[in-house]
Amino acid sequence: MVSSMLSRIAESLFWIGRYLERADDTARILEVQVHQILEDVSADEASISRSLVHALGVPTQASEEIDFNNVIKALSFNLELPGSIISSITGARENARGIRESLSTELWECLNVTHNTLLARSTAVASIGPHEFFRFARHIKERVALASGIAEMTMVRDAGWHFLTLGRSLERIDMTVRLLGVRHAFASDANEWTATLRSCSAHEAYLRTYGGEINGLNVIEFLLLDRLFPRSVHFALHEAEVALDRLSPSVGRSGTVGEAQRVLGRARALLDYHEIGELYASLPSTLVALQAVCSETSTAISERYFRVRTTTPWQLDDPVFH
């Protein structure tokens, strides 16, 4: 039961899950956009840059000129920006440092080493240019995968594990939605939708499901609705619901007990009972609604389980998808 665990520890584990997923997915989103800029001479850098800053929460003025390289650097290395990769890794490490007694030595060392080597790598990327960014992004994805694997192998499946899973699942929903928002604005052919799949490590799984044809409708369906692919929105919604159910009963005599469960259940129903054509036709509003689900669920979890909230989510108050 959650009552046997200090809320400080529960909250830290929840945010470790969120921060690691945020770093991983931000690296994925930036990587696919850098690929597009380098490979497509007709790509509109200004439009792509503005879409990125809207989707990933970089504060800008409407009339401000946005430079693509500066956007990449800010979203990668700006410690003052809550959604940047370096801020996310730092947030995961700081939360872990405060609860070292509740983590395995291997997991703490992984997070600590990742954080301590990140500044040196960020300096190299900033000085060398965008091609070095691909090595940096791969490094981030590998380190997050290593941390996730260590957690999988060393953590007891108690309330702490469920909070870590819950944080990771909510962030994955949010970030997959952000990726789809960015890519839906610009992906116009099979090559660009392939890049979208690769950014989610979904290309091979998609081909096994749909065969060789790659188009926007099928990609959206796979990343939103697939029940078996772990990075899909539906799969992550289900994981979050299971974690909440393990933490406390989710259904009483008069229906669902917790506000978080109600919000997640409504979101899953939205995906379960709408045809993909309907979802695709209203995709921007669907993505905004799913992003709001993550924010509302996080707030409900904080109010129910955490006595003090020491970290701030980075979602936009008014998310914009083009």
Quick structural overview:
With 322 residues, the chain is mainly α.
Describe this structure in words.
The chain has 322 residues and is an all-alpha fold. It has one domain (2-305). 72% of the residues lie in helices and 1% in strands. It contains 14 helices and 2 strands. The chain has a two-stranded antiparallel ribbon. A hairpin with a 2-residue loop joins strand 1 (251-252) and strand 2. Helix 2 (45-56) runs antiparallel to helix 7 and helix 7 (159-186) runs antiparallel to helix 10. It is globular, with a radius of gyration of 19 Å. The termini are far apart. The model is unreliable at 315-322 (pLDDT under 50).
- Structural domains: how many: 1
Global shape = globular
Regions with little confidence, pLDDT below 50 for 5+ residues: 315-322
How much helix, percentage-wise, in residues? over 70%
Cα gyration radius (Å): 19 Å
Average pLDDT number: 86
Determine the number of helices (DSSP H or I, runs of at least 4 residues).
14
Q: Biggest sheet, strands in spatial order?
A: 1-2
Give helix and strand order, one letter per element, not per position.
Answer: HHHHHHHHHHHEEHHH
Q: Provide the β-strand percentage band.
A: under 5%
Quick one: biggest sheet? Answer: 2 strands, antiparallel
Report the structural category.
Answer: mainly alpha
Distance between the termini: 43 Å
Quantity of strands, as a count? 2
